[in-house]
Amino acid sequence: EQSGGGTGTGMEFCLSSEFFSQMETLLADHEKDFAGGAKEQEHQLKYTAIHKKFVGVFEQKLEKFITDKGVKLEEFMTLCQTATDLNDPKMKAFLDVLLSSLDYLTFVDMA
């Protein structure tokens, strides 16, 4: 089944302890930047810069993991779209988590 191959690889990466520890480290490195202020009405500009860094690291690590598994990034994106079109609930849940983790407001809430 082709639709699971590349997206399964992405899911494997995102569920790995290595990925979680890398993302936790990045958030921990900036914990003091968000201390007491992330829930304010108006966010500080530095939050956007930290979020961009987080997204960049996330994308870089995901792309490396996928290509190391022999899947091209374009193929992974196509497989994600196919999985979405097939209304696979497991894949939809994975993609929702993946995309929401890249969302700025979700990121600030996590911080």
Total DSSP E strands: 0
Structural class from helices and strands?
A: mainly alpha
- Give the ordered list of helices and strands: HHHHHHH
Shape: globular
Helix content: over 70%
Count of runs of 4 or more consecutive helical residues: 7
For the termini, the CA-CA separation is 38 Å
Average of the residue pLDDT scores: 77
Q: What ranges have pLDDT less than 50 throughout 5 or more consecutive residues?
A: none
List the quaternary state of the chains: single chain
Strand coverage percent: under 5%
Radius of gyration: 15 Å
Largest sheet: none
Write the layout of secondary structure elements.
Layout: H1 2-15, H2 17-29, H3 31-34, H4 45-68, H5 73-85, H6 89-102, H7 104-110
Helix pairs in contact: 1-5, 2-4
3D structure, described in words:
80% of the residues lie in helices and 0% in strands. It contains 7 helices and no strands.
List descriptors:
single chain; 111 residues; mainly alpha; 7 helices
Question: How would you summarize this macromolecular structure in one to three sentences?
Answer:
The chain contains seven helices and no strands. By secondary structure, the chain is mostly helical.
